[in-house]
Specification:
With 192 residues, the protein is an alpha+beta fold. The protein is built from three helices and twelve strands. Helix 2 crosses helix 3.
């Protein structure tokens, strides 16, 4: 597209190569038309691939599918599914192979009991108690926190969001572990 834009800007210089300005204009319009048609075709193919991958995910009770073709990467993540079986591994272009990988059995969720002195999650995501794996935790039991202090990070949609203390006090309990999923309004820490 950039080449075409450059050609259009310089069409006075280029037009002498084609004999007339209208021949050059026609060529430019044809190239733009071909690019748009190819773009629409690619979009249609991508939408169809997404639809087929989503159906495959659902039909096989998979938790996620990664697919890459012609420089386009598609990742579909479905709802968490509890299995006690083995997980089939399917790869396009390669014969299907079943790999015996036991999946964790998910127990019934524990009821969330919110206490007034809790710092709660403002969003759904994955909680991290440290900035990087080698760093010490933002806070630990016995630490004093002030309003606005960062107490943890929650990853949501590939973005790490700092979670600030909404209350001041001494941390009496850390209610989550690094890497665990958290729900909206789920208690993360208890303060005294």
């Amino acid at each position: 597209k950039e080449v075409i834009e450059d050609l259009i800007i310089n069409k006075n210089v280029i037009s002498f190569l084609f004999g007339s300005r209208s021949e050059f204009d026609d060529l430019c319009l044809q190239i733009v038309s071909d690019l748009k048609r190819k773009e629409k075709s690619m979009e249609k193919e991508q939408k169809q691939a997404i639809k087929e991958l989503a159906e495959l995910l659902h039909e096989n009770n998979l938790s996620e599918i990664d697919y890459e073709s012609n420089g386009v990467h598609i990742r579909i993540v479905g709802p968490k599914v509890a299995h006690s079986d083995v997980a089939p591994v399917v790869s396009a272009g390669v014969p299907a192979v079943a790999v015996a990988t036991p999946l964790p059995v998910v127990s019934e969720p524990k009821p969330v009991v919110k206490v007034e002195n809790d710092i709660v999650s403002p969003m759904v995501g994955i909680v991290y108690l440290t900035k990087t794996p080698n760093d010490p935790p933002f806070v630990k039991v016995g630490d004093m926190v002030s309003v606005g202090d960062t107490v943890c990070l929650i990853e949501a949609m590939k973005t790490f969001n700092p979670i600030k203390a909404t209350k001041a006090g001494r941390v009496s309990a850390v209610l989550v572990e690094t890497g665990s999923p958290v729900e909206f309004n789920q208690p993360l820490f208890t303060l005294e």
